[in-house]
Amino acid sequence: MAIETVVRTHRASIRNQRQVRDGLDTLGFAAAKLWNVARWTAGRVWDACGQIPDHSVLKSYLKSHERYADLNAQSSQRVLEELDEAFRGWYGHRDSGDENANPPGYRKNGDEHPRSTVTFKEDGFKHDARNGYIRLSKGRNTKAHWSDFILCAYDADPDVEIENVQQVRAVFEHGEWRLHIVCQHEIEITSAGDGTAGVDLGICNVAAVSFGDESVLYPGGVLKEDEYYFAKERAKCNDSFSREAQRLDRKRTDRRTHFLHALSKHIVQECVECEVGTIVVGDLGGIREDENGPRNWGDHGNMDLHGWAFDRFTTLLDYKAEAEGIEVETVSERDTSKTCSVCGTKADSQRVERGLYVCDDCGLVANADTNGAENIRQRVLPNPRREDRDNGWMAQPAVRLFDKARGDFLPREQMDCEL
Predict the structure, then answer these.
(1) DSSP label at residue 194
(2) Tally: H helices and E strands in the chain
(3) Among 15, 128, 243, 271, which one has the highest count of C-beta atoms within 10 angstroms of its own C-beta?
(4) How far apart are the C-alpha atoms of 315 and 59, rounded to whole Å?
(5) Residues 155 and 280 both lie in one domain
(6) One domain, residues 177 and 201
(7) What is the pLDDT of residue 155?
């Protein structure tokens, strides 16, 4: 058994919401204004020389700007870092062939500024663990007489201990302010085992997991249903910035976030039961392009592909696996979908349909996603097994379906019985 240090983010409600709301509103509006100043500055530099300044240049240039002093210095720096990250994300989408990706815009709803998230680092907060208070610092321009800070009384989940606080984020969610408290915890970890599991991520099946002698599929039909429903409902809104449109956007985001949490949690639980010590995930960094440039997956395929949060899922899987003593690695998934996991033959023609893989050389018949997951698993094995063996588990993988009522994954057989 080993002691590991992990970082976790805990959501907390604010008990004295009425007392601190105005002060947090002021800081949230200030963060939006600073973002807009930085975005305008980046646009001027972009027009002048064709380059976008990174956060270090913006920090140096805007340090004396009056909007910079509306927040604690570290909070202002974080706003500029977020803008830099947004531009880098836009670069990534463009490099991946998404021609519809837009650069980060201004934070405005009509003539109003939204309440932006405000991040407080070590110099911007003080934590009173005994009484459940967090003191948040204001900027030089927003201090008024004795009120140099905002004192928030918070409530976290009863089974969560708020300790070793590294960072605090004030986030405006569902009409009120909440605190996202980043803590450092020491936990006891027991190694789950020495097995290896491969995970192939996709669109129809959001994940296929291979354990070497059994496999599990996680269909993504629920995600597609949600996307279709919310897109249809949002189209009924006359104003894309209306309260109803924003409510729909929040609900869609919350549902997708819960699905990804439930998916990553269920995969880790399956790995613990199978005594897996290493999870290997296919890196989809190049899925949007091939040797000839950007790949065209069709109108619906491109929409699904650009909306799939591959990186976010891998992050969730990583930190949930860490708590169970399981290591997560990423490997290139190139050619895994067209290579036979038994004999190693590679040919495009062997994937005869979206969900079926048939090897012309050894005669393997398998679920295509399971075959890809097994290839990913074998990429980290010192001596991949390519001898004759019973491959029935590859043709008929187990299926886990998402139950909206429970918010968790269940075996297909159990779902069919309940229906």
Answers:
(1) S
(2) 10, 18
(3) 271
(4) 28
(5) no
(6) no
(7) 94
CA distances from 379 to 53, 119, 332, 348, 394 (A): 39, 40, 9, 20, 17
Instruction: Dump pLDDT digits (tens) for 263-287.
Output: 999 999 999 999 999 999 988 765 5
Query: Does 281 lie in the same domain as 344?
Result: yes
Residue 120 in contact with residue 136, Cβ under 8 Å? Answer: yes
Answer yes or no: are the C-beta atoms of 353 and 310 closer than 8 Å. no
Nearest to 207 by CA among 386, 344, 376, 389: 376
Structural domain including 149 reads 2-189
Global confidence as pTM: 0.71
Q: 281 and 229, same structural domain?
A: yes
Q: Which residues contact 18 (CB under 8 A, 6 or more apart)?
A: none
Residues 122 and 240 in one domain: no
The Cβ of residue 302 has, within 10 Å, a number of other Cβ atoms equal to: 18
Q: Write down which residue in 174, 189, 204 finishes a domain.
A: 189
Beta strands in 61-120 (DSSP E): 118-120
Question: Strands across the sheet with 408-411, in order?
Answer: 327-332, 276-283, 195-201, 205-210, 215-219, 398-403, 408-411
